[in-house]
Design goal:
Elements lengths: L1 H21 L3 H12 L2 H6 L2 E14 L4 E11 L2 E8 L8 E4 L4 E3 L9 H8 L2 H4 L16 H4 L3 E9 L2 E8 L9 E7 L5 E10 L7 H6 L3 E15 L2 E14 L4 E14 L13
Antiparallel strand pairs: 1-2, 1-12, 2-3, 3-4, 4-5, 6-7, 7-8, 8-9, 9-10, 10-11, 11-12
Length: 279
C-alpha cells in the first residue's frame, strides 16, 4: 500500500509538467529556439556566414575504411553552398548548392553521384528549404517561419541518446511525398540538436507468390546531429556537426558517418553570387 501511494503521488506531481509540455505550441518552441540562438539584433546582423574545418568520413557498411578531408559551408540569406573534399580518386567529395532559385549538386568521377547526393536529389526540399546544416546556415527555415508557411507540429518530449528533447515535425508547403522531417531541441536550452529525415519505398509485387514474398521495403534515413556550441558574434552556434546516412534495400545496406569539426566561423566575409553556382 505504501509503495502504491508513493507511485500515485509521484504520478500526480508529474501531471502539471506533462500538461505544460503538451500545451507547448510550435510557435513558442521556435521562439525559444531563436532566443537560444541569439537576440534579434545579432540574428538580423548575420546575413552571411562562412564556416570551414575538418571532416572525417567513416564507412561502416557499403564502403571501406576512414577518410579525412576538409569542408566548407557558405550562406547568404537563403542561398547556400556546402562541400567536402577528400584526397581520393573514387570519392573526391560532395558539392551541393541553392542559388535562391535552382538546386545544384556535384558529380563524382565519370558522371556518377555519391549516395548522399542521390539521397538529397531524391528529396529536394531538404536543400531547397535550407534544412541541411541547421542553424549553421543563414538559410535555416526557422529563421523565417512566417515566410516559409510550413506547417509545424509539436510532438512532445522524446528521449534520444539519454537526453530529453522537444520533437517538432516539419512539413514543407510543397509536398515531398512520404518524407518525414523531425527536428529535436534540447529540453532546457532549446538549442537545435538533431534533424532526422526518413522515407520508405514500398516493396514491388512479384510475378509469383514466392517472388513477391522475397520483396522488402527500402528504407532511407539521414540524421544530422549538432554539438559543441560556442558564441560567435553574439550567436550560439554548433562547432561539431555529424551526418549519418543509412540505406537498406533488398540488395544492399549502407551506413556512413561524416563528422565535421569547424575551426573557423565568420559573418564578415563577402560572398559573391557565383559561389552559389556549381559549374
Amino acid at each position: 500500500m505504501k509503495t502504491c501511494l508513493l507511485l500515485c503521488v509521484a504520478f500526480c506531481l508529474a501531471l502539471p509538467a506533462l500538461a505544460q509540455d503538451n500545451k507547448l505550441k510550435p510557435e513558442a518552441l521556435v521562439a525559444r529556439h531563436l532566443e537560444a540562438l541569439g537576440n534579434a539584433e545579432a540574428r538580423a546582423a548575420a546575413t552571411t556566414r562562412v564556416v570551414s574545418g575538418a571532416v572525417n568520413l567513416t564507412s561502416r557498411l557499403g564502403g571501406t575504411g576512414n577518410m579525412a578531408g576538409q569542408a566548407m559551408m557558405a550562406s547568404l540569406g537563403v542561398k547556400f553552398r556546402f562541400g567536402t573534399r577528400f584526397n581520393s580518386p573514387h570519392y573526391p567529395g560532395d558539392d551541393m548548392a541553392f542559388n535562391g532559385k535552382r538546386l545544384m549538386t556535384g558529380f563524382l568521377t565519370e558522371g556518377q553521384r555519391s549516395n548522399l547526393i542521390l539521397f538529397l536529389n531524391s528529396q529536394e526540399m531538404i536543400l531547397r528549404d535550407g534544412l541541411i546544416g541547421g542553424a549553421l546556415s543563414t538559410a535555416w527555415p526557422l529563421l523565417r517561419v512566417e515566410q516559409m508557411k510550413a506547417p509545424l507540429s509539436y510532438r512532445g518530449l522524446k528521449k534520444i541518446d539519454g537526453r530529453q528533447m522537444h520533437e517538432l515535425l516539419y512539413r514543407p508547403p510543397k509536398s515531398s511525398g512520404d518524407l518525414r522531417v523531425a527536428m529535436y531541441f534540447d529540453a532546457e536550452s532549446f538549442r537545435h540538436l538533431r534533424t532526422q529525415y526518413e522515407y520508405e519505398i514500398g516493396a514491388r509485387l512479384g510475378i509469383g507468390a514466392n517472388e513477391s514474398s522475397r520483396q522488402t521495403e527500402s528504407r532511407y534515413q539521414l540524421i544530422e546531429s549538432f554539438d559543441d556550441f560556442r558564441v560567435v558574434d553574439g550567436l550560439t552556434l554548433p562547432h561539431k556537426y555529424k551526418l549519418q546516412l543509412s540505406i537498406q534495400t533488398q540488395s544492399s545496406s549502407l551506413l556512413s558517418d561524416w563528422v565535421f569539426t569547424f575551426s573557423r566561423m565568420t559573418h564578415k566575409q563577402k560572398i559573391e553570387d557565383d559561389v552559389f553556382e556549381i559549374k
